[in-house]
Amino acid sequence: MNNDELFFKVWRNKYIRFLIIEFKRLFEKNKKKKFQSYKEFKEYNEKEYVLKIDYQSNEILKDGDLSDYPLLRAINLRDPIFTDISSSIFENTFIETIKFPEFKRNSNPPLTDINKLPSTIKSIKRFPYDIKIPIPQSIKKITIPYHNLLTTISMVNLEDFDENDHEEEKHSIKLSPFSNNKTIENLKFDCSSNLNQSILLENTFPKNLKTLDLGGYSKVLNENVLPITLEKLIFSGGYSITLFTNKLLSLINLTHLSLSHQNVLLEPNSIPQNVTYLSISNIGNSVIDKSIIPRNLKTLIIHPTFRDDFKSIPILFETFPNSLQLLKCEGFKLSSIPKRYKNNNNNNSYSFFPNSITSLSIGSEFSDNFKPGFFFPLDQSSSSSSSSSSSSSSSSSSSSSSSSSSSSSSSSSSSCNIKSITFGYHFNKVILPNILPKSLTYLKFGVTYNQPLLKDSIPLGSNLKELIFNDYFNQLVDHTTLPIKTLEILRFGLNYKVPLESIGLDKFESLKILELNSPRYPYDIDLKSIKFSQSFHTLILHNDFKFKSNKILNQNSIKNIIYKK
């Protein structure tokens, strides 16, 4: 008997099926429970199904209370009273994750009874224990809150640091057992921690650390301070940081680097070449070139820091590596991006981006340069004619003027690998023919976009599957402007007020989901008379939408109606 036959043999038993459905309901209901009082916590009558607890009461838990919840795996303790408790309240449980409350300045010193934690504990958030005490081997992930005495983990306080007496100062420090821990793999410091008041020295961190979040640390990162095992390095805040040449090159296993400071300055070769994921919230370099961008990147998220003169930071030619697959550069103006990017497969074709990119998020300031050849390479012989025809008009009349360039650029479009494009918040340009690639499967417009789609704005033969119009959009789109064979998901925003009947929804052969997120949609939706294709199954409406009259749901067309907040 195969698995399918066995399943149906069990499922056809009404009693067993009832039990399965009932237990499923109970587990879903109790996946996470919130308790606002100790009495509510003690008297809850479905304890055996609870997986996570959000305990918001200021009444202390007693030893043995948590063991009444046999499947409990995670608990969030909200009240500051739990910064000074006995860890024995966790004994005889199978809890894996504990989140302690935020520190209050009048709290007691760090806890010392970490040895009372059950061996199932793997993660502790807002670590309340004294880190001079050996940490149990079961714990893999901890978050150090800002109140912890960080000078105990082999750091030098800046006020006492003397560069001329570095070695003597270094030897005077007593290394904590924390740095010798071989099991902690994930370590995070709160952005507001005292870490930024110290200089990191060697042997500061656990030897087998794989993920490290240094919070708002902004001081110099010297060589050999971070463990060679590190794979993921994160700075989740901070004002300003400079990464100096060759300081991080010893991190041969580092693949993920995220810098969220308000101002990031990069020297050439400051980032190891093995990094494949790089995120920079605010880059302050005056010029961005390939000397500061690793050549093996697959994901690059980069935004320029704010400048008082509103001038955009230029990105030089060939800055983006040919390995790049996902690029987000929404903060840059088009004038910053290189005007030509040679296509490796054709020496006579150029585009703005490497041919390797599959997902792209770009900004809003496009001036007059948003024209054919932007996303996919055009042959040089046809690029000039395409540019002139596309720039002659930005209205619907430009559809015919650009049609002559369609055939000349079709081969270049078909070789493009971009599957996802997201436009920035303020993007509001007409999409001319021969701009979007045929390879596109996902397209999302920014909040302020409100332009009509031309007949060939989305190219003939496109593979587009999901199309998202945002809050300002209120234009007619129908089966003549959208791909009727491939489109599966169509979403409209808050301001859409076009009758659904005018779209011709029954013409879309693959449409499955339609979202109308307009709280003040002026038309009634007759679910009985509106025709959909056989593939359609879900209509998503705004939570405030009200049908003007009772309508019979046509089960042959719509199987689900979901109300969205």
Automatic annotation (TrEMBL):
Keywords: Repeat. SUPFAM superfamilies: L domain-like. Coiled coil: none annotated. Residues 382-415 are annotated as: Disordered. PANTHER family: FNIP REPEAT-CONTAINING PROTEIN (PTHR32134:SF187). This is FNIP repeat-containing protein. It comes from Dictyostelium firmibasis.
